[in-house]
Amino acid sequence: MTSPGTNLPAAIVCAISFVVGLLTVAVFRYVSDQNAIRTAKDRLKAHLLALRLFQDQIPVVLRSYVRILLATGHYLRLALKPLLVVVVPLTFLIAEVDRFFGVMPVQAGHAFLVKAHADNRETLNKLNLQLPDGLVSTAPAVHVPSHREVVWRLVGEHAGDYSVQIKSSDEPGLNKSVVIGTGLSRLSPVRLKGQLWKRIFLSAEPPVPESCAIQSVEVLYPSREINFAGLTWNWIWLFLVVSLAAGFLFKSLLGIEI
Fold first, then answer.
1. Are 119 and 208 in the same domain?
2. What are the start-end ranges of the H helices in 118-158?
3. Whole-prediction pTM value?
4. Where are the beta strands (DSSP E) in the chain?
């Protein structure tokens, strides 16, 4: 957890959220057909009003329900294109920001785990962890054959950027980055073989070579929690709340139909 007095992560997340809220409504404004959206919303309101005014007339009510469904579909079709334009880059932005705010470095002197997932059980007994100066092992490796995993418990003696190497007896070693310290760092919790989309969102390192007998190597970093407005937040919830609030604010100020 971040210390109670640390508010830099909250300030950065709020700033990013505020800018994203502004850019989102601005892009929506210039990509969408504002007149068509305004007309579609007016028609939908008219059908809802007719439903309330003529609720005792069954034929009118049924026609109103059909028109409401059609008007809703028309509105969603008009809104879909600008939403896609906004959502695609926003998804990749969230994946990148999560590398800084999703987890936090391990503090010096605190134990953490490194976990390797092998292709098969036979490989497990061949895996060895080689450590640089500044990282030490505090317990024997734990083998979990049912999950094809080996887990090591380590401690960082000093803050810094490190690289551990998992080496099999019959192939070159595989490196994995480890960050020890405090504050903000761009972290890569896992290094993966294949799984392109999973790598895009979870890893910031090159893929594990296909010839390697290891499927993945993971550093179990602690989750980052952000103190803001008297509450403890996961950054993504803070981002969503602030960006939505900023979006509605700019929507009203700029007179944009959404």
1. yes
2. 121-124
3. 0.81
4. 111-118, 127-130, 135-137, 142-144, 149-156, 160-168, 174-180, 190-192, 214-219, 226-228, 231-233
